[in-house]
Amino acid sequence: MASSSAVAASPIEATIIRKIRTRIVPLILVLWVIAKLDQINIGFAALTMNRELAITSQQYGFIAGVFFFGYFLFEIPSNLLLHRIGARVWISRILISWGTLAVLTGFAQTAHQLYVARFLLGMAEAGYFPGLVLYLTYWFPQRHLARTIALLLTGNALSNIVGAPLSGLILDYVHWFGVGSWRWLLILEGLPAILGGIVIYLLLPGRPAEASFLTAGEKDWIKAELALEEHQKLSARKMTAGEALTNGRVWHLTAAYFTAMIGNYVLGFWMPQLLKAFSSEYLNTTVGLLVMLPYLAALPVMILVARASDRRLERRYHAAIPLVIGGISLVLLATTDSRSIVFSMALWCLAASGVYSLWGPFWSLPNEFLTGFSAAAGIALINSFGNLGGFVGPYAIGAINQRTGSFRGGLLFVGISLFTSAALILALRKRPEHQGLARI
């Protein structure tokens, strides 16, 4: 997996990249944690919400997954608008609108109202993740991208490390004014997004030219590096936004992402209920602490995999091998009869580490051949269609459980989907004409 193109960074490069990472990444990381809390806290709300509203497992699967239909419909327009209007204004708009809808979800009275609220929440959040990925390409050359994206996506793990025990505590102890604790969970975890939108508008620089923390010489250096990369991509094959939407390589990546996301969102939406099934006597706080453990395990692994991917300038194997490990773990969860919580937690840790290690290497692949509006459109297409796996996985688990009385078939289906994603990534042929982007 080594590459002869992997060259050590110069002192000025190391200094500039460190400055940008220090000032940009922590801010968007905090906001990504907030986003994931609002996206997956329905998994914890279900521990009491399903009983209160008489929601079946199949209905819950639809509630969890319908979010991604709204997300799908507005993803590409949202990302193109971000590229045209600017990251600061558009990301701020996304945060404030979805924070408001997240709070309103806590007032739903029926399953059908939750269907509508979750659909609108997905519509409001559309463009957020691909927008952040696109935004990072305005600041980081290709050779630094996997590690930077992985640092951002540690927010997936951190949101569960922080959010899982917090959600369990809210469910057990927050019953203010006689209102159900699951409602307070959705309301309290939706408010930070509104605050985050205001912070983004005030503090986030759109491009290196706007960065007060860089000197004039440092701004010139990063702009020159990014311009060289863009020139190489355009000289190899200039692509419009429309061409990106019909490009075979973009659709290949979309299929790989779709099958991976089937597994990813099953972890977020179903793990609390699957772990609760070990004992009905577990407090919700205990379930929250158990859910936190796989994400604690995944956090260092995903960073190490991304660092190795950047160091070797190799993406396919660094994305596919973790998915295979995650798939094996889910198949073992489905096919073994162990009632040992220790054994099951070990498998959940491997599954989370495998799925989460995908993101850094995977999201570096589109930037190898897309730029400008083609990048905005292509990244949004991959994320929007790919995230429909976030509907298929949770809904399939619920539907299979309702028909069979067991989660085994659903877990087996999800494990196979991860194997499929790994195979698709390995089948993605290298593009020799873009290897020069590895080190300009």
Give a verbal description of the structure:
The chain has one domain (11-438): Growth Hormone, Chain: A (Up-down Bundle). With 440 residues, the protein is mainly α. The protein has 18 helices and no strands. Helix 4 (87-105) runs antiparallel to helix 5, helix 4 (87-105) packs antiparallel against helix 8 (181-203) and helix 17 packs antiparallel against helix 18.
Total DSSP helices? 18
Major beta sheet summary: none
Structural class label: mainly alpha
Task: Give helix % range.
Answer: over 70%
Produce the secondary structure layout.
Elements: H1 11-40, H2 42-52, H3 57-85, H4 87-105, H5 111-125, H6 128-137, H7 145-173, H8 181-203, H9 216-236, H10 241-246, H11 248-276, H12 284-312, H13 316-335, H14 341-356, H15 359-362, H16 372-386, H17 389-404, H18 408-426
Helix pairs in contact: 1-7, 1-8, 2-7, 2-8, 2-11, 3-4, 3-5, 3-6, 3-16, 3-17, 4-5, 4-6, 4-8, 6-16, 7-8, 7-12, 11-12, 11-14, 11-16, 11-17, 11-18, 12-14, 13-14, 13-18, 17-18
In short:
By secondary structure, this protein is an all-alpha fold. 78% of the residues lie in helices and 0% in strands. Helix 4 runs antiparallel to helix 6 (128-137).
Please describe the structure with a list of short key phrases separated by commas or semicolons:
440 residues, Growth Hormone, Chain: A, disordered N terminus, mainly alpha, 18 helices
